[in-house]
Amino acid sequence: MAVHDDCKLRFMELKAKRTHRFIVFKIEEQQKQVIVEKLGEPKEGYEEFAKCLPADECRYAVYDFEFMTEGNVPKSRIFFIAWSPDTSRVRSKMIYASSKDKFKRELDGIQIELQATDPSEMDLDVFKSRAN
């Protein structure tokens, strides 16, 4: 599975310049490559991000989660989300599962990985508990 250069470029922008809050990636099966499907504006939050993940299709996503430590210090963690809902096609789940590690290696700077098959597995509380 190839990774479109735009994926790495947009990820670097998120990581270094904070120009995006999140990125949703899609595997284009015809072209056999991962492409950028949606970019989230820096002001967009978790709600907008969660709405971008289709209920019955797999996706990869990167989310820049900002939070306050117990000492009131602002921090952020870059999450990689492998979204694979139970209702998606078996073939799609297999393609995403088999390509995940290779794709993740292309994105240098991922701090935390989440696997999710339904919205409750990537609830905001899950991000908070994993970030600390």
From TrEMBL:
The keyword Metal-binding does not apply. Pfam families: Cofilin_ADF (PF00241). Keywords: Actin-binding. One of its GO terms (molecular function) is actin binding. Residues 1-132 form the ADF-H domain. GO terms for biological process: actin filament depolymerization. PROSITE patterns: ADF_H (PS51263). Belongs to the actin-binding proteins ADF family. This is Cofilin.
